[in-house]
Amino acid sequence: MSLTFAFLIGLLTGLRSLTPAAAIAWAAYLGWLHLPRSLAWMGTLTAVVIFSALALFELINDKRPTTPARTAPPGLVARVVLGAFGGTCVAAALGAGVGVGLALGIVGAFAGTFGGYQARTGLVKAVGTRDLYIALLEDAVTIAASFFLVSRL
Predict the structure, then answer these.
(1) Closest by Cα among 19, 56, 44 to 146
(2) pLDDT at position 2 over 80
(3) How much is the pLDDT for 79?
(4) 34-87 residue pLDDT tens
(5) How far apart are CA 147 and CA 57, in angstroms?
(6) Between the chain's N and C termini, which has fewer beta carbons within 10 Å?
(7) What is the full DSSP assignment across 14-41?
(8) Number of independent structural domains in the chain
(9) Radius of gyration of the chain (CA)
């Protein structure tokens, strides 16, 4: 089960790079997620504030027409690094191998990045609507799924 969660947190990171990290910080802060000492800083109020603010900034910035595609190198690198981190946190909290959690977080981040891009552009074309509406739907799904996932750990 923990390996699935590590992959899924990576997948969600591919959709919105900072939302799953913010959800992990909140889960650790609220006591839903028990991280080992080396990652315990994620459960501090400082981490919650920083990751939440960064996630909010990302949600807003994503809607700007000048924002590069998530598949562009800077965004892709951020998603892979944060996917690895999220997978590591999930695996560590569940007592699973952190190396495997890290790897699955990376695989999930790649899947979420490229799959999310294809899904979003495909939905915009299929539905014939503005990208903004699909982006808002993607935000809602990522936020809800991230918090649902960390509440089940």
Answers:
(1) 19
(2) no
(3) 97
(4) 999 999 999 999 999 999 999 999 999 988 988 898 999 999 999 999 999 999
(5) 18
(6) N
(7) HHSSSHHHHHHHHHHHHTSS---GGGGG
(8) 1
(9) 15
As a whole number of angstroms, the distance between CA 117 and CA 12 comes to 12
Q: What DSSP letter does each residue of the chain carry, written as one string?
A: -HHHHHHHHHHHHHHSSSHHHHHHHHHHHHTSS---GGGGGGGSHHHHHHHHHHHHHHHHHTTSTTSPPTTSHHHHHHHHHHHHHHHHHHHHHTTS-HHHHHHHHHHHHHHHHHHHHHHHHHHHHHHT--HHHHHHHHHHHHHHHHHHHHHT-
What pLDDT does residue 153 have? 82
- Joined tokens for residue 140: 């809602």
Matching residue, tokens 């809607």: 63
